[in-house]
Structure formats: structure tokens, C-alpha cells
## 1
Amino acid sequence: MSYVRCQRCGRPTCPECQRPAPVGIQCVDCVAQAAKAVPTQRTAFGGAVRGGRPVVTLTIIGICVVSWVLQLVTGGDWTQRWAFAPVVGIEEPWRFLTAAFLHSSSVLHILFNMYALWLVGPFLEQVFGRGRFAALYVLSAIGGSVGYLVLATPTIDGGWATPVVGASGAVFGLFGAIIPVLRRMGRNATQIVVLIAINMAIPFFVPGIAWQAHLGGLVVGLALGAGFAAAPRERQALVGWLLPAVVGVVLVAVTVWRYTAVGWI
């Protein structure tokens, strides 16, 4: 039987359950209760301050890498199953998102996108928090597909039949979101703007790149980033779930409108 008592509750505590406190010893139950009572530290944008690795960013990178390996070992079957093209997106709408986790067979494609994701992902995940960062990435990825749907030539033997893969739309969304964040922090966003401009110009000189997806992701990212950055502290939690919901509804509405406009619905 232990003769050491917890300084908070007064109950005897065994050596394995003793935790040192500023004064005396506390039991594990009191330590856990005290930890829950400590307010969560948050960034200026409402994200919970967390130590350790950027879990969401690393998870996205891991999914993309595993998916790319499956693309190679299945001889293209994995790509055909999940790639996005407007002609199949109307019947299989999940492809609006899954295409963002696929890449071309060139290792440079996935390396560039994953490097760009690693450059900005951990920072945005920290300032926005995991939930809002995940929503930003997913909606930017979908926005890229919607951008392609709206801007590509609506013919079954043209743009709408061309498969689109890559995380570029989502990455451009992150680039767009970081601009209002940097401005809110009083930092210079010129480098990001120049990087966006260069990458938006590349498709006009290099064939086979869907600039429409880049633009769609960029617009969604700018909208979400601006909303998250401008939200007053007392409204950050509300904006954190309401704004992504509104953007999601708008993307669905634009998709339905586009398919209806060409007589597919």
C-alpha cells in the first residue's frame, strides 16, 4: 500500500501512478484533469498550436506516393479507375477529388507537386489547424476539376474526354490561400505571386498541362484563404466550418450548371 498521497485529491497513489508537480506529487487522474482545464493555445488564424509533425500534409504526400506506385504496377488500370474527365465525372463524381492523388508516369510530375506541397503545407496546416487545412486541400482539388470542367472544350472527342491527373490544382489552392495569410501577417507575398504567375504561364509553352485545373484550384484557395484570414477571432470557429460548406455548395452548383448548359443533365 502506498503512503504517498496526491496533493490535489488526497488519495493514495502508487509509485507507477505518481507524477511530479510544482509542489508535491499528483496522481495521473488529476494530471489529466488539469491538462483538460488548460485553454488550447491558438494561432492568430484560429488553428490549434500543436507540436510534432504536420500530420495532414504527410498523410496527403503518403497517399499520393502510394497511389503513384499503384499506377505504375497496375499498368494504368489504377489511373483509369480514378482519373477525372468530364465525360465520366457526371456518372462518377468522386473522380473530381481522386484525380488529385494521381500523377503522370514521369517522376518529375509527382516530385514537383510533393515538393511544392511540402513548401507551403506545414505552414498552412499550423496556422489554420488540421481540419481547415484538410478542407482547403480537398476543396482546392475539387475546384481544379471543376475549373477544367468549366473551361475545357465540351466535346466528347476533345477536352472533356481528356483525363486529368495531378495534385497541381490543390497545390495552386494552397498557393492562393497563403497570399492573404502573409498579407494579414504583414509579410511580403511577392515571391508567391511571382511563382504563381510563372506556373500559370508554363502550360502555354508546354503542352499537356491543364491550366484550367490550376486556375480552378487557385480561385478556391484564394477564397478560402481570404475568408479564414479575415475572420475575427470570435467568429473563427464559425467561419472554419461554414465557409468550406458554402464553397462546397458553390462548386456543386457550378458543376450542375455546366453539365446542364451542354444538355448532359
## 2
Amino acid sequence: MTAMTTATLANPQALLGDVAAGFRAGTLVPFVGPGVSALEEHGAPLSPEELADFFATKTALPKRAKGNCWSAAQYIESTRFRDTVTVWMQEAFAAGVAPSPFHHWLAQLPLPLIVDAWYASEMHAALLASGRGDWAQVQGITRAGIGEDRWFRFYDATGAACEADTAAQATTLLYTPHGGIAPAANFLITDADYVEVLTEIDIQTPIPEEVRQRRTGLGFVFLGCPFNDQLLRIYARQIMKRSSDRHYAVVDVAKLTRNEARFLEEQNIAAIDLPLGEALAALMAA
């Protein structure tokens, strides 16, 4: 029996109990994707496909870039320069996405690490609203045209830029590997951005040292995260590297592609086969 089959047959409520206990103990890391916010209507794009559609409203895209936000952004950068990509990303997320009750719930927990895997910065807003001052954020950044030899920037709870040593003192570190609209509109978005990152991702230099230290021994819980793209799977795999050997994901098992199912099996990610909204409500109730 394969690991994927075992995970599929496991009692989802029992797995949710394990996740709730792990969150309370600080031994599991929430890896929050745009699917959490997409449970409600918002004006901003809440999937890579929706972001690609937004770019298509701004300019005519070649066939190869349609439906792929990273290729679309690369085409825009090639034809209209990087500043246009940044301006249009800011426009896409200008209306803001209100944090969900689940974001607010997470923000109250003294978790050592939270990963927010989308650009809308809902988790940042929830932490701001929590009134806590003991958290910091590290965002992935593009190195295109900025003249900086680094892969990320740190910010304190007020949104001010800070040094890694300051962020290391925080109880909770929010990691936004792809960047985000807040606090400073850093975006890792074009094919070229990711090609550059992926040249070094195996040796982990694009992953902040503080993230690498905090993930040691912890498991990850994927919530509202799409894994239908190889780039997203690679990034998740590298962020999980050298952490625990037990992880979880709320997914619809019947809709998993072969590549998605293989990814869960290879990474020992237990599939919690429940509707996302039901799973989030159960976690908050626990």
C-alpha cells in the first residue's frame, strides 16, 4: 500500500485533530494559499489562472502566455519593461483582500512560522489587526534591476524594513516566498524571476536562513494551495526541505492529477479529503 493510498484512507477528522494539536503546540506550519480567500468573493485575482486573466485585460498576450501568470508577466516585462509588471501587479491587488476568519484565527496563535503563498497579503493584514507586536515578515523579492545581491527583505510588525537579526527575535515569522502587495509591493512573478531563483534553490540560498532554522523538525499543513503547476510543487518541496517527515494537505482527492498525487506521496503529505471550508471551520472550532 502506497503512502498516498494510506493517506487517502485515513480518517480526515482524525487528521484534522492532529493538525489542530500541532498548531496549538507550534509543531506544524500553516502553508496558506489563495484558495482560503477564494472561498468568498473578492475583487483581486485569487489563483494563478485569474492573475493571468487579469494580465490579459491589460494587453494582448501570445498564446503561450495565456492562462499562465508567470509567462504572461515575462511577456509584459519583455515588451513593456519591469516597471509595468510591478504597476499592474499593484493594480491587480489594489482593492485588497480582507483576511478570512481563518487568517484572523491563525494570527492569534504564537506559531513560529507561517507561510503565505500568494500576493494579496491577507495574512499580513490579519497579523496587523491582531494587535500583536511580536511578529515579523520576510518576503521573496525579484533581483531584476534592483541592484541588490539578495533574494528577500525583512520587515517588522509596523511594516518598516529591518535586519534579519531583528526579525529573528520575533515570536512568529511570516514568510511570503513569492512576495506580496504589503508592506512594500515585492513580487516574484516572471519566468525570469523564477529561473534565477531555481538556479540556486537546491542549495537553499533563496530560502532565508531564519526560515530554514525555524522549519527544522516542524511539519507543514497546506491549506488552499494549488499543486497543479510544477513551479509551485518545486517551491513547496524546497521550503519543506530538512523539516519533519510528516505533512498534511486539505485536498479533494478525487480531483488530484497524477502529478499532484505523486507529489503528495513523494513528500509524505497526508491528504485530508474534506471541503476546504469545512476543514477550516473544524480547525477553528478545535
